Description:
Largest sheet: 4 strands, parallel
Number of domains: 1
Number of strands: 8
CATH topology: TIM Barrel
Order of helices and strands: HEHEHEHEHEHEHEHEHH
Shape: globular
Distance between the termini: 34 Å
Number of helices: 10
Structural class: alpha/beta
Radius of gyration: 16 Å
CATH superfamily: Aldolase class I
Bound molecules: 3-phosphoglyceric acid
Amino acid sequence: MSNKLTCEQLFQKNKIVPVVILNDIDKAVPIAHALLEGGISVMEVTLRTPNALAIIEKLTKEVPEMITGAGTILNDDHYHKAIKHGSQFIVSPGLTPELAKVASQYDAPFLPGAITPTEIMQALLYGFNYLKFFPAESYNGYEVLKALSSPLSMVKFCPTGGINLDNARKYLALPNVVGVGCSFLIKEEQVASGNYAKITATAKETLLSVGVF
Ligand code: 3PG
């Protein structure tokens, strides 16, 4: 199954994908509104907290203008639950045969992770040509993605891991990069203090710095 068309739509308008690690359900909706006000309408809620699935469900129901996806999907149980709770897209740091199989049962865009040419070719065999590239900075992501853009030009990437205000624009300028994922937009201290205005300001600043208005 090819995931090209749906991933294409996902990244057409969303170059910055905030990666969210959140457990406080009550903060989910204000965070989503803060991001929307800052011009960002996508959130990857990672399954790293006990309430992540409840947060995905709440966002899907209460903030329909936000495209809410699930991240850190490591197995088929995560995948089924994420979809059941309303996830509109699914992200994994890697790819297993189990994940490829479960992904084929749903229409939601799936962004599996791959780094090496062999892993990328394996993902292509399964029909996935939109991939996460994680952890980007640890793997010298900019140079690696640049090098991959010629022999594996049919693959598009969303690098994450170490993406910040200083390097996002550089990554996005690569022909094979369709978006970048980053956690710095939703900082723990801002969430704890309810500083949603800062989240909006950071979102605006980020979009400006990468040239997306
Ligand atoms: C992650 O899955 O944690 C993301 O890649 C975020 O990485 P970052 O915290 O370096 O932005």
